[in-house]
Amino acid sequence: MCALESCRFHPGIPVFHDAMKGWSCCNKKSTDFSVFLSIPGCTVSLHSDVKPPEPEKPKPDPNKDELIQYKSPTEIKPITPIVRPDGDEPLVILKSTVAASLTAALEKLKLAATETATEGQAEQKDVPIGTTCKNSSCKNTYEGAYSNHESCQYHPGVPIFHEGMKFWSCCVRRTSDFDDFLAQEGCTEGSHVWFKKAESEVATCRYDWHQTGPFVFVTIYAKNAWPEECQVKANRVQLDVSTVFDSPRKKFHLPCELFGIIDPAQSVVTYFGTKIEIKMKKGEPMSWSRLTIEKKIEEPAEDADN
Questions:
Q1: Rounded Cα gap, residues 232 and 241, in angstroms
Q2: CA 94 to CA 171: how far, in whole Å?
């Protein structure tokens, strides 16, 4: 006769869920199929040559009507496109930051320029009495050798006239009165310049652009830009970049009619030692196929008689 505990088995059914394999009758589980097969039974009894009955599946109630629920598809609201703003909106100066690498490079250039200016002043012994300082907003005149040691208050930036307002790019003290604008005291202290400086050379700069989901980036490869003399302005569809860089100074101007719409309030300019990066926040969730759009030139209509 067989012993009462001669058969060890699982009375439950195998359960496979989320890569786990186990038996419904016990809590032993494994992700490995071989280990699952080798799990010892959790119940002991006599051997049997009769297959255990299959667990009964729930039978549908014939007296109960089958209810089929239908859910209408969720309405997808179309994205309302933003009407393209007028390009004549006023341009605002974008917020800017200066990288430490550029600050260090400009300090070296300023030191070299100061030494050159000092040598030049030593050679300029024949400055006519009454010569006016050539720095912007400085009204001092040359009265003798001691004038070279006087402090000069001047504006290093450029004058800007926009929508009736007048101001300097270096300090942005706005006024609508021209006499008040001329009377504004310089925002920078330095040395007098008795002879007119050579005009900055107009140069070309390589630039490119790329985009991420919410931003468009414009990179201008201008080395050693002078942030106080640069201006990056924009409205929602226009970008205007005026930059002064390197030594001797060079000028570069980039006006753009943008392909898409931006948010100037969330856009920023960063000045690095070797480039200027303009990070513009998109005004609508769309991909730009290019940076700018070409303005169509309307040809004059021909006379009907021709």
A1: 5
A2: 14
Q: Residue 115 — φ and ψ, nearest 5°?
A: -65, -40
pLDDT tens-place string over residues 216-262: 999 999 999 999 999 999 999 999 999 999 888 899 999 999 999 99
Tokens 């014939």 — which residue? Answer: 62
185, 191, 192, 198 alpha-carbon torsion, rounded to 10°: -100
Q: Are 220 and 205 in contact (CB under 8 A)?
A: yes
Contact predicate 208/256, CB 8 Å: no
8 Å CB contact between 159 and 166:
yes
**pTM, to two decimals:** 0.51
Nearest CA-CA partner of 28 in 44, 7, 12: 12
Q: For 9-35, write each residue's pLDDT tens digit.
A: 888 888 888 888 888 888 888 888 888
- Cβ-based neighbour number of residue 306 at 10 Å: 4
Q: How far apart are CA 253 and CA 205, in angstroms?
A: 9
